[in-house]
Design goal:
- This protein is mainly α.
- The chain folds into 4 domains: 75 residues, Arc Repressor Mutant, subunit A; 92 residues, Arc Repressor Mutant, subunit A (Orthogonal Bundle), CATH 1.10.10.10; 100 residues, Orthogonal Bundle (Arc Repressor Mutant, subunit A); 42 residues.
- The chain is built from 17 helices and 9 strands.
- It has a 3-stranded antiparallel beta sheet with strand order 1-3-2.
- The longest helix is centred in the first third of the chain and has 26 residues.
- The radius of gyration is 28 Å and the shape is globular.
- 24% of the residues are buried.
- Belongs to the eukaryotic RPC3/POLR3C RNA polymerase subunit family.
- This is DNA-directed RNA polymerase III subunit RPC3.
- Component of the RNA polymerase III (Pol III) complex consisting of 17 subunits.
- It comes from Chelydra serpentina (Snapping turtle).
- Pfam families: HTH_9, RNA_pol_Rpc82, WHD_POLR3C.
Length: 412
């Protein structure tokens, strides 16, 4: 973690949550895990301020806590979680692209609030959409609920872990920190709420009537206030799923650039079939048969089964090895080699950076070193077909910028 990353995290926290939260968050990023009283002592802030700041950071999944063996709780703020704030606009735009304005607003509300119940999200989004509609038109809660369910079905949103229920008759003291857990089977199950209603517009009143109407509204809200049917079931944006979607898009784009649009559409179909059944960290997708892929191709994509098999064979034989063959049943079983694809994309990015910074000859040497792992200077000159003086200068440039390194091969 560099000083630049810490400074960036500090600015992000201050912009989104204010000075107090920024001070606590930056302190934890710099120092690592610390208990509550140590944080208050080191920052010079009151316990109440520290507690409220930690509550905000935990609500937004920016701080984690862990119960230590000695009975106290330590809090930690991973820098990577704070830096994810920079990608919030991209997450929201992705939801808009896939699920229109409703999906955009649902994900935006969850990112802005950290954790929310489904009923609260649906009402808030319906109200916001109603504000943008023509007079006399309103957004029905049912339409927003349907989009919410689609986001859950594709795992872009998920339930938050919950504290276990405690019985009131228990005499044991509560633990210093609750152990949160969620059943994997229930993580994407949407409660059957049957929300009925429509979005409401905010009404504007004259200044002299503002106080009276506000007090009346508050009294009505208090009288009719009931706990929502999904009270205690909170939802959050599934950041890993968004990153998985970005990875899949990069793989599809790489296949399209290397081969053609039909090949990329086949790979897109395979990734879409595996997006829920395959973990985001898995090295391969689940094996898919040629027949399954053929049935899952987008409607209107007119290629016959024989052509599909030819494309799959070409993809499996390609030196990049994005697609692999894992069996012959069902017309042939195929997988996407995710780790291999990501390594290839990362290598191509590195090569382009070297070429842009040092020129095509340095890029040739860099590619050679990537392929051969270790080479002596004389071997670099011979294999790259570059004069000795130029090769030496280029190697020194890349060495000074830490793109290549030296290793003494005499030491065994």
């Amino acid at each position: 973690m560099t000083q630049a990353e810490i400074k960036l995290c500090s600015l992000l926290l201050q912009e989104h949550f204010g000075e107090i939260v920024e001070k606590i968050g930056t302190h934890l990023i710099k120092t690592g895990s610390q208990p509550l009283r140590v944080i208050a002592n080191d920052t010079g802030m009151s316990l109440d301020q520290v507690k409220k700041a930690l509550c905000v950071l935990i609500q937004h999944n920016l701080v984690t806590y862990q119960l230590q063996k000695r009975g106290f709780v330590e809090y930690e703020a991973p820098c990577s979680r704070v830096l994810r704030i920079l990608r919030y606009p991209r997450y929201i735009y992705t939801a808009k692209t896939l699920y229109s304005d409703m999906g955009e607003l649902i994900v935006e509300e969850l990112l802005l609030n950290g954790k929310m119940t489904m009923s609260a999200v649906v009402r808030k989004v319906a109200d916001r959409l109603t504000e943008t509609m023509e007079d006399g038109k309103t957004m029905d809660y049912g339409e927003v609920s349907n989009t919410f369910m689609r986001l859950a079905d594709t795992h872009f949103i998920q339930r938050c872990p919950m504290a276990p229920e405690t019985t009131e008759t228990s005499d044991a003291p509560p633990p210093p920190a609750p152990t949160l857990a969620v059943n994997e089977k229930d993580m994407y199950v949407v409660p059957n709420l049957n929300l009925i209603g429509k979005g409401k517009r905010r009404r504007s009143f004259d200044d002299e009537d503002n106080g009276e109407h506000k007090a009346k509204r508050q009294k009505q809200d208090a009288d009719s206030q009931e706990s929502p049917p999904d009270d205690g079931i909170y939802w959050q944006a599934n950041i890993d799923r968004f990153h998985q979607h970005f990875r899949d898009q990069a793989i599809v784009s790489a296949v399209a650039n290397r081969m053609d649009q039909t090949s990329s559409e086949i790979v897109r179909t395979m990734l879409r079939m595996s997006e829920i059944t395959t973990s985001s960290t898995a090295p391969y997708t689940q094996p898919l048969s040629s027949n399954e892929i053929f049935r899952s191709l987008p409607a209107g994509y007119n290629i016959v089964k024989q052509i599909l098999d030819q494309y799959l064979t070409l993809l499996a034989d390609d030196p990049l090895e994005f697609v692999g063959k894992s069996g012959d049943s069902g017309g042939g079983m195929y997988v996407i080699n995710l780790h291999k694809a990501l390594a290839t994309l990362a290598t191509a990015t590195l090569e382009s950076v070297v070429q842009e910074r040092f020129g095509s000859r340095c890029a040739r040497i860099f590619r050679l070193l990537l392929r051969k792992k270790h080479l002596e200077q004389k071997q670099v000159e011979d294999f790259a077909m570059i004069p000795a003086k130029e090769a030496k200068d280029m190697l020194y440039k890349m060495l000074s910028e830490n793109f290549v390194s030296l290793q003494d091969r005499r030491q065994r």
